[in-house]
Amino acid sequence: MRPKGKSRRMVSAGLSGVALAAVLAAAPSADAQADSRQADGRVPHWELKQTGTDVRFRGLAAVSRSTAWLAGSRGTVLRTTDGGRSWRDVSPPGAGELQFRDVEAFDARRAVVLAIGEGEASRVLRTEDGGATWEESFRNTDPKAFYDCMTFFDSRHGLAMSDPVDGRFRILSTRDGGRSWTVLPTAGMPDAQPGEAGFAASGQCLVSSGPGDVWLATGGGATARVLHSADRGLHWTVAESTIPAGDPARGVFALAFRDRAHGLAVGGDYRAGEASPRAGAVTRDGGRTWRHSATPPPAYRSGVAWLPHSRRAALAVGPTGTDLTTDAGRTWRTVDTGSYDTVDCTPDLGCWAAGEKGRAARLEW
């Protein structure tokens, strides 16, 4: 989504840190490791990891409990392979003017980063050697395009999305792990609403599940919508979410699907001090229909992720805190007041979060 003055993706927030509440122990259908108190009485909580920088990280790729990638402002990319005890600055040379908003990593050596902005500011870079060297594999040349997010189905097939160009969202596709990209035809894409766009707030406005399903989150238009494709972006259907829009600052900011049917949406109004009613929604039919959360997050949230091995537990994050659901998004409870923009989890219980002022944290079980 295009900015007015400062980017709409730039959200100010305060800092604090409170242990995640013991409500994790009450999730009846979640995996025992993820949803129960430790034997010594400890409760899962965010543990801050010093990154040595003050940039804002809206791009996060969790590979495992030990390995994670961060991508942020001033062309910054960091990587840890020791659980956050140390971070290596692997930023691409000469990228200081770029705003990285998404990173997708396949392991400790291979990653793809997306820079956002109008025209040639939107770029994709990739590395195969842990960030020692980078290759620019895409540079946008259309002044009407503005890329927001990307997602990968596997280590070869991925998509990136741009705000509407000539009335429809633009989809970029790769079949070789990000080495080359092709703009997909728009014949199967529904028309965009006036003012409708995506939010490059957490790298989660475009998400995938399985070999072919992908969802795109929108805001800014009269209604906040979720678009779905079952064929890797060639044909799309569209459904209205229950999250309010009708303003350039409002809509769905992030999606998470634990399979091709069950999904979560979070968002709201990113402006500090503005109310964000009905900031959460759920689907059980792959995004064909959405229902509002009975008790939604109390404020704007920009990131969301299912907890590993859980059918009911998930975390949502934003500038004013972290919320937990233990009933698959029906109700949410604030369990931490620290500022984070994005969150990502891995099967080995490696949940990471990142945000402003160089903040990065790992969920300690």
Describe this entry's structure for a reader.
The chain has 365 residues and is mainly β. The protein has one helix and 28 strands. The strands form six sheets. Strands 6, 7, 8, 9, 10, 11, 12 and 13 form an eight-stranded antiparallel sheet that branches. The chain has a four-stranded antiparallel sheet with strand order 1-28-27-26, with no helix packed on it. A four-stranded antiparallel sheet has the order 2-3-4-5, with no helix packed on it. A hairpin with a 7-residue loop joins strand 22 and strand 23. The longest helix has 4 residues. The two termini are 36 Å apart. The N terminus is likely disordered.
Structure summary, number of beta strands = 28
- Average pLDDT reading: 91
Instruction: Assign a percent range to the helix content.
Output: under 10%
Total count of helical runs of at least 4 residues:
1
Distance between the termini: 36 Å
Q: Show unreliable segments.
A: 2-41
**What string, H for helix and E for strand, traces the elements in order?**
HEEEEEEEEEEEEEEEEEEEEEEEEEEEE
Largest sheet: 8 strands, antiparallel
The shape is: globular
Structural class determined from secondary elements: mainly beta
Q: Roughly how many Å is the radius of gyration? A: 18 Å
Amount of beta strand: 35-45%
Describe what is shown at a glance.
By secondary structure, the protein is an all-beta fold.
Fold topology:
Blueprint: H1 32-35, E1 45-48, E2 57-62, E3 68-72, E4 76-80, E5 88-89, E6 99-105, E7 111-118, E8 123-127, E9 135-139, E10 146-152, E11 158-165, E12 168-174, E13 182-183, E14 206-209, E15 213-217, E16 225-229, E17 237-240, E18 250-257, E19 263-269, E20 280-283, E21 291-292, E22 303-306, E23 314-318, E24 321-325, E25 333-336, E26 342-346, E27 350-354, E28 360-364
Antiparallel strand pairs: 1-28, 2-3, 3-4, 4-5, 6-7, 7-8, 7-10, 8-9, 10-11, 11-12, 12-13, 14-15, 15-16, 16-17, 18-19, 19-20, 20-21, 22-23, 23-24, 24-25, 26-27, 27-28
